[in-house]
Design a protein that fits this description.
The protein is an all-alpha fold. It has helices at residues 3-36, 40-75, 90-96, 99-148. It has one domain (3-148): Methane Monooxygenase Hydroxylase, Chain G, domain 1.
Length: 174
């Protein structure tokens, strides 16, 4: 593959990664709605869709790394040598590419970076909401358990301890 084809391939990969991250934001919103409505099936569907999306992203990332490695071997400081240099960051690679293609690739990389940050923020927010819901449900379960407990006591572990039955009788004959 020649240099122009490799740079075009990198542009396609960045565009594809951008589309996948946009899909991820939609899935996060679906997941948030399922949590908001306490819909366990909806949460499971959203998580399953996110697992598939992450598998797609992993495959795309593998291809991106191969293209970056090929471009680095072609344009990097050790260009043409047999040295197997470590994979550079995308920004580092972009600095050594020809100026004609560099700006377009930088714009695509910047757009992707912004989406990745949004995904991280939304995931963090969703994690906090899920933890709050879980704590709320746990509190409700403890409240119900307390109301149903005949002894009304909790053990050291924070759960209702099984107590022996209280034997009581009233002698009505006398």
């Amino acid at each position: 593959m020649n240099a122009d084809a490799e740079m075009s391939k990198l542009a396609e990969i960045l565009a594809e990664m951008t589309r996948e991250h946009q899909k991820w934001l939609v899935l996060i919103e679906q997941h948030r709605d399922a949590v908001r409505h306490a819909d366990p099936r909806g949460v499971e569907r959203a998580l399953e869709a996110q697992r598939h999306l992450m598998a797609n992203l992993a495959a795309i990332e593998q291809t991106r790394q191969e293209v970056v490695r090929a471009l680095w071997k072609r344009f990097g400081p050790d260009a043409g040598s047999a040295v197997n240099a470590p994979l550079p960051r995308l920004g580092t690679l972009l600095e050594v590419l020809p100026a004609a293609q560099r700006e377009a690739l930088k714009a695509k990389a910047q757009e992707l970076r912004g989406l990745i940050e949004r995904v991280r923020h939304e995931e963090s927010s969703l994690k906090a909401a899920t933890a709050a819901l879980s704590a709320h449900i746990e509190g409700l379960m403890r409240h119900v358990g307390r109301r149903l407990s005949h002894a009304g006591t909790y053990g050291r572990r924070g759960v209702i301890e099984a107590t022996p039955a209280l034997a009581a009788a009233v002698d009505l004959v006398r």
